C-alpha cells in the first residue's frame, strides 16, 4: 500500500508543539497537551513519505523527520520489521510515542534495591491513534517490540532533545548500563546507509 506524503499534518504538529514549548509548561502539562497534538497527527496515516517508513530486515529503523532549530525537540519515525525489538533502554528526556501503523508492545522496567531491573506489570499494547509517554519522572526504562511477526509497524516518537545525540544507556539483565548514542537511520533512497543503534 502506498502512503502519499501530506507534509502539512507534520508541519501543523511541529508548529503546535513549538508554540507549546515556548510557553514553558511543566512536564505534566507538556505531556498532556503534547500528547493531544501527537494523537491528532497519528490519527491520520496519509502524511509520512514512503522513504521514511521503509523497514530493514536486520534491525528497526529510526528516521529523523524534524529537529527543532533550538533543539528543544526531535520527531522521529520508528519502523519495525516483523518481530523486531529494542534492547532494554532509557531516554533521559521526556518522550511521546504515537502509533501510526500496526502496533507495538512496550514493557516497562523498574530498578530494584539490589540494582537489578524487574519487569513492571504487563506490556502495554499501543494501537494506531494511541499515544503514551516516558520520562525520567514517570518511568524511562523500557523495551519495545513490534506486536506482529508478519507485518511492519510504524510509530512516531517525539523527544525533548535531539535524541540522536543524547548519551543514553541500554541495560543488561543485572541492571548494569552500556552507554550509547543512537544517531539516526539513513533513508534507503540514499546511496550510503548508516543504521542507527539501540533506542526507542
Automatic annotation (TrEMBL):
Fe cation binds at residues 89, 91, 142. Keywords: Dioxygenase, Iron, Metal-binding, Oxidoreductase. It comes from the Bacteria. Residues 183-200 have a biased composition (Polar residues). Coiled coil: none annotated. It holds the Pfam family CDO_I. InterPro entries: CDO_1, RmlC-like_jellyroll, RmlC_Cupin_sf. Residues 181-200 are annotated as: Disordered. GO terms for molecular function: ferrous iron binding; oxidoreductase activity, acting on single donors with incorporation of molecular oxygen, incorporation of two atoms of oxygen. Gene3D superfamilies: ATP synthase delta/epsilon subunit, C-terminal domain, Jelly Rolls. PANTHER family: CYSTEINE DIOXYGENASE, CYSTEINE DIOXYGENASE TYPE 1. Belongs to the cysteine dioxygenase family. This is Cysteine dioxygenase.
